[in-house]
Design brief:
This protein starts with a helix and ends in a 15-residue tail after the last strand. It is built from 13 helices and nine strands. By secondary structure, it is α/β, with parallel strands linked by helices. α1 runs antiparallel to α2, α4 runs parallel beside α6 and α10 packs parallel to α13. It is about 65% helix and about 10% strand.
């Protein structure tokens, strides 16, 4: 039993040792596996960290590369833009240089032409003076011969035969004198044309030297109207010269050549547009009465230039501040071109149309209708004629109008009829109080003349006209 017990204890001990050994081996195995796992985990984390760092480096490199590419692209675009701007600037400078050269060439050609015209005009003047001198001598001689013939006729009045002969001589002398008078008229016309040509040369010189001044003359309203807030000024030009003759010639540009008329019209329009735009707002407080000459309707160049200026100043709506005064005789002479041009200025640019040079009231209403004129510019005699002439019965009367009212309408004057159609009258030439009272009594709406408003070189509330450049 003791041996069995000892054996059992030995077996138990050995089994315990075996189990302990196995447990220890198991533990060592587990620890080895744990160590391998831990090392694998650490390695995986390190690899993950390395990958994350590599990814961050890759992203940073990509970002830097993108920035460099964007910067390079921007620099390339800037370089190309700079090259284009430099090219455009060079082209613009070349264009300006070409324009300046062309302008200088044109000015030189103009100067040479003006000198040539002046030379020709001087030669023509000398020729005319020589012809006039010859004519004056011939006329004086003819007058002396007539006087001698008349005296001889009176002396020999009692001798029938001699009387007949002397009468024939006198008649012949009278015919010769009549022919001389016709020649005198032709010479005077040639002399006047020569004077006008010489005046044109002087005016062109003043324009080139900028010695022409824009003038304004107030058109005074003879009525109170709260809605009529704008003052009307008639535009003109004055010459900065010792003689007043050039200014007198400038008062009627219609006597000049078409080319000079166009130059003067552009000068006046440019100054008016400067006045309209100088405030920097759309609310110009003035209306400018501008007279149209023949050049408005004979050469499209002036209208094209005007269209360009209207386009430049579109935001100011300048047409609302301009009254275009169209002489009826010029309108009729160029009606085919004048009618659509006037309608374009009125409808597209809000110009106001006035008519002047009214010789007859016969077709006046038709002219007002064709041009949609809302103003007539007349003198005191024309105003009186309008107030004394009965208006034609143009509109059909309806049956609802009583007979006595219809009869009263038939007695309406041309002036009353025009006013009923919203056409106002400007009476010019008011130089004294008598003419002013006559105009007011006859029923004018506005007056114009030195007595009611002298010509001035500037507007009282005007600032510098250099604020807007027109080309």
């Amino acid at each position: 039993e003791q041996e069995a017990k000892t054996k059992a204890e030995e077996e138990a001990r050995l089994r315990a040792e075996q189990e302990a050994k196995e447990a220890k081996e198991e533990k060592e195995k587990l620890e080895a596996e744990l160590k391998v796992f831990t090392e694998a985990k650490i390695k995986a984390e390190e690899e993950a960290q390395l990958r994350a760092e590599q990814k961050a480096r890759d992203e940073e490199e990509a970002r830097l590369r993108a920035e460099q590419e964007a910067k390079a692209k921007s620099e390339e675009e800037a370089r190309l833009r700079a090259e284009q701007e430099a090219k455009a600037k060079a082209e613009e400078e070349a264009r300006l240089r070409a324009e300046q050269e062309a302008k200088a060439k044109a000015e030189e050609e103009t100067r040479l032409r003006v000198e040539q015209e002046a030379k020709v005009a001087n030669e023509e003047k000398e020729k005319l003076e020589a012809e006039l001198k010859v004519f004056a001598e011939a006329k004086a001689k003819a007058v002396e011969e007539m006087k001698a013939a008349k005296e001889e006729k009176e002396t020999n009045a009692s001798m029938p035969e001699t009387k007949s002969i002397k009468t024939e001589e006198y008649a012949g002398s009278s015919i010769e004198d009549s022919e001389n008078d016709v020649q005198s008229i032709d010479v005077n016309k040639e002399s006047e044309a020569g004077i006008i040509k010489e005046v044109e040369i002087q005016i062109r010189k003043l324009i080139d030297e900028k010695r022409i001044i824009q003038t304004y003359q107030s058109v005074t309203a003879m009525f109170d109207d709260d809605t009529a807030t704008k003052e009307i000024y008639k535009t003109g030009l004055s010459a900065m010269s010792e003689s007043d003759e050039l200014t007198k010639h400038l008062s009627d540009a219609s006597t000049f050549s078409i080319s000079l008329q166009q130059t003067i019209n552009e000068w006046i329009l440019r100054q008016v547009f400067l006045r309209i735009t100088e405030s920097g707002t759309e609310k110009c407080q003035h209306l400018f009465l501008i007279s149209a000459t023949e050049s408005w309707f004979t050469d499209i160049a002036l209208f094209q230039w005007l269209q360009k200026i209207l386009s430049q100043t579109k935001k100011y709506n300048p047409g609302k501040s301009i009254i275009l005064n169209v002489p009826i005789d010029i309108f009729l002479k160029h009606q085919k071109r004048a009618e659509p041009l006037i309608n374009t200025l009125r409808k597209s640019h809000q110009f106001t149309i006035a008519l002047s040079n009214i010789e007859s009231n016969e077709d006046l209403l038709n002219y007002c209708s064709l041009t949609s004129a809302s103003l007539l510019v007349v003198n005191i005699e024309q105003l009186k004629k309008l107030s004394q002439t009965l208006a034609p019965q143009i509109e059909q009367k309806t049956e609802s109008i009583p007979a006595d009212e219809d009869e009263e309408d038939d007695k309406q004057s041309m002036l009353q009829y025009l006013k009923s159609k919203k056409v106002r009258i400007i009476t010019g030439g008011i130089e004294d109080s008598t003419l002013l009272m006559d105009a007011i009594t006859a029923g004018t709406d506005y007056t114009l003349g030195n007595f009611v408003g002298e010509i001035q070189n500037n507007l009282a509330d005007s600032s510098s006209v250099e604020s807007f450049e027109l080309t």
